[in-house]
Amino acid sequence: NARKVVFVHNHPTTSEDPSQEDIETTKKLYIAFKYHNIKIVEHLIVNYMGRSFSFSNNGILQGFEEYIKKI
């Protein structure tokens, strides 16, 4: 009965920036989970040096929410 989830994955490179595939996959998951009333509260990408990128802190998850309101 989860209501919230966090995704974390690694990039085995020096870049913690999300790829277009990372963004599109997260968007699809966001829409699917929203349908089941489950909120994605964070998606973190961690590079091999320990630096991370936060979808939440960078406004990407909020952008998905705005996208959903339009469809």
Would you write up a description of this structure?
With 71 residues, this protein is α+β, with helices and mostly antiparallel strands. Helix content is 38%, strand content 28%. It contains two helices and three strands, in the order βαββα. The protein has a three-stranded mixed sheet, covered by helices on one side.
Strands, helices and their partners?
Elements lengths: L3 E8 L8 H16 L3 E9 L4 E3 L5 H11 L1
Helix pairs in contact: 1-2
Which band does the percent of strand residues land in? Answer: 25-35%
Structure class = alpha+beta
Helical content stands at 25-40%
Radius of gyration: 12 Å
Strand order of the largest sheet: 1-2-3
State the end-to-end CA separation.
26 Å
Which descriptors apply to this entry?
single chain; three-stranded mixed beta sheet; alpha+beta; 71 residues; 2 helices
In short:
The N and C termini lie far apart (26 Å). α1 (20-35) crosses α2.
